[in-house]
Amino acid sequence: MQKNSAVKQMDNKVEEKLNVIQHQLRKKIHCENNFSLDELKLVAGVDIAYWSDNEVDYGVCCIQVFDYLTKKVIEEVEYVGKVEFPYISGYLAFRELPLIVKAVQKLKNTPDLYMFDGNGYLHIRNMGIATHASIELGKPTIGVAKTYSKIKNVNFTMPPNSKGTFTDIVVDGEVYGRALRTRVDVKPIFVSCGNWIDLNTATQITMHFVEEDSRLPITIRYADLATHEARKYQKLMNK
């Protein structure tokens, strides 16, 4: 009992430190555009997949870089590494950022904007992976999540069943993000500002990359598919 209590106290102290860091970083959030859509050339989709081998956690970060106008992939990279940080709800960025930074360092092209499979401002402390990564990378970002994690017991309202419709998710009188219906008869996705972008522009860019065969923008979809393939390959190699 004493050992469990000591571990719990240690975990609480870690969370307290992470909480302080997130609140300090919140001062650097700007939910307004620092770029013009006319100047947007390269947009990257980012996703991460995890697995364990012999009780060691690994992750692979895949980045797909798209030409904004043609929507064609011009570069793709991946980085595989050990995961040193444990999973702690609300603090996922601390686990994922080391992999993301290493993957970004492998890019030959410099994206103008990054889209992340995850949240940005739509987070209990407004510090989802898209927001935290923006501060680290110095680039505008968008968070695109497949599901909604309830914040302060606030539910989202289902948007009308039409392409491009949305409902805003308001917490304590502030818009944190929105539920976006990208296609008819599909579940909504959840879009939020990462940093240096406003929510309407984030929605516009997300819809720009949505094609007829998926509810997700291809930036996120392709990155997601790449992580699954990379994880499968790594598991086969390590058998």
UniProtKB/TrEMBL annotation:
It catalyses: Endonucleolytic cleavage at apurinic or apyrimidinic sites to products with a 5'-phosphate. Keywords: Cytoplasm, DNA damage, DNA repair, Endonuclease, Hydrolase, Magnesium, Metal-binding, Nuclease. It comes from the Bacteria. It is an enzyme of class 3 (hydrolase). The keyword Protein biosynthesis does not apply. The keyword Magnesium applies. It is found in: Cytoplasm. Mg(2+) binds at D47, D117. GO terms for molecular function: deoxyribonuclease V activity; magnesium ion binding; RNA endonuclease activity producing 5'-phosphomonoesters, hydrolytic mechanism; single-stranded RNA binding. Its cofactor is Mg(2+). InterPro entries: Endonuclease-V. Belongs to the endonuclease V family. DNA repair enzyme involved in the repair of deaminated bases. Selectively cleaves double-stranded DNA at the second phosphodiester bond 3' to a deoxyinosine leaving behind the intact lesion on the nicked DNA. PANTHER family: ENDONUCLEASE V. This is Endonuclease V. The lineage of its organism: Bacteria, Bacillati, Bacillota, Bacilli, Bacillales.
